[in-house]
Write a structure and sequence with these properties.
The protein is an all-alpha fold. It has 2 domains: 62 residues, no CATH class; 36 residues, no CATH class. The protein has 4 helices and no strands. The termini are far apart.
Length: 100
């Protein structure tokens, strides 16, 4: 009986109705968790690189933000990912601007 409970418990967590689907979903979720960790690491790296650029720009007498460069980035993300890409790019730009 405990194997029936074990088989239905993961199904409730995954929404799947068969053990095969539970396995596929569980494996795919593990891959997504790994990808999310890598994405977060890349975003943190992007933020650090952006901080270097901002520091150098300000030290040389420039402005903290380069709006024409930000427009290039927005266009790139929109071109690659569609309208949702613009929202993602805006979030990345906001994170990378640092604290005011």
């Amino acid at each position: 009986m405990s194997s029936d409970t074990t088989a239905t418990a993961p199904a409730a967590d995954t929404g799947a109705r068969t053990p095969e689907a539970v396995g596929v979903i569980t494996d795919a979720r593990g891959r997504i968790d790994d990808l999310d960790g890598r994405i977060i690491g890349l975003v943190q790296e992007r933020m650090a690189v952006s901080a270097v650029i901002q520091r150098e720009r300000i030290a040389s007498g420039g402005r903290r933000v380069n709006l024409s460069r930000e427009m290039e980035i927005l266009d790139h993300y929109r071109g690659q990912l569609g309208r949702s890409g613009t929202a993602l790019a805006m979030t990345l730009l906001e994170l990378s601007r640092g604290r005011v």
